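Why does residue order matter? Because the sequence determines the fold. Keep that principle in mind as you read this record.
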Amino acid sequence: QLRLVESGGGLVHPGGSLRLSCAASGFRLDSYAIGWFRRAPGKNLESVSCINKNGDDTFAAESVEGRFTLSRDSAKNTAYLQMDSLKPEDTARYYCATGDFTSAVQTCLQVPLETTNWGQGTQVTVSS
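Structure:
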């Protein structure tokens, strides 16, 4: 069964850090482009950061650039989103998803349109 499971969310103070994990089962995660997406209450799904299938092109939304870093560990078949300098506006439910794209930007644009079976996500709450 092909599956992605997100974890690592929680409650953190502004300025704090979290590392989200996206564990894959049933397929090789490093054979696909990967993206992290988030949905805040009352808002549309937002693309946060993506990496292309070759692993040599990354993209981060302007709102998180310089604070969030996407990486993947082939040995653990897991992708990560390191989130530093968190702000209250980062509060959202975070999801990972995959696609078959050679461009990180295209991944961030197309995966939300093509993905129909999202995982449960992981909640990130930034509050003092």
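The beta strands are 3-7, 10-12, 18-25, 33-39, 46-51, 58-60, 68-73, 78-83, 92-99, 122-126.
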